[in-house]
Amino acid sequence: MSLDALNEALGYRARRITRYVSLPAQDASLDDISIVVTRLAQTDIDEMMQQLEALPYVHDVAKPSI
Q1: Is 48 exposed, middle or buried, given 0-12, 13-18 or 19+ CB atoms closer than 10 A?
Q2: 10 Å Cβ neighbour count for 17?
Q3: Residue ranges of the chain with pLDDT lower than 50?
Q4: CA-CA distance, 8 to 16, in Å (whole number)?
């Protein structure tokens, strides 16, 4: 998933991304992508995760425990 595709999928919330890291996964056909967002309400974060999960090329979305 490119940063452009992420921006398109998330709309205005994408402006809150402060870090985007894409690394090859153990499965060579996949990438592990991590994003960090700031200044978003929990409801916005939950909606972002739902939007990402709905994308056909996203296999898993996880939020780290803090």
Answers
A1: buried
A2: 17
A3: none
A4: 13
Whether residue 15 is contained in a domain is answered as yes
In a domain, 65, yes or no: no
Q: Total domain count for the chain?
A: 1
Tell whether 58 is covered by a domain: no
User: Global pTM?
Assistant: 0.82
Cα separation, 46 vs 51, whole angstroms: 9
Q: What is the 3-state secondary structure (H, E, C) of 1-66?
A: CCHHHHHHHHHHHHHHEEEEEEEECCCCCCEEEEEEECCCCHHHHHHHHHHHHCCCCCCCCCCCCC
| The token pair that represents 30 in the structure block | 């996949």
Q: Report yes or no: 16 and 28 within 8 Å, Cβ to Cβ.
A: no
Question: What is the domain extent for residue 27?
Answer: 3-53
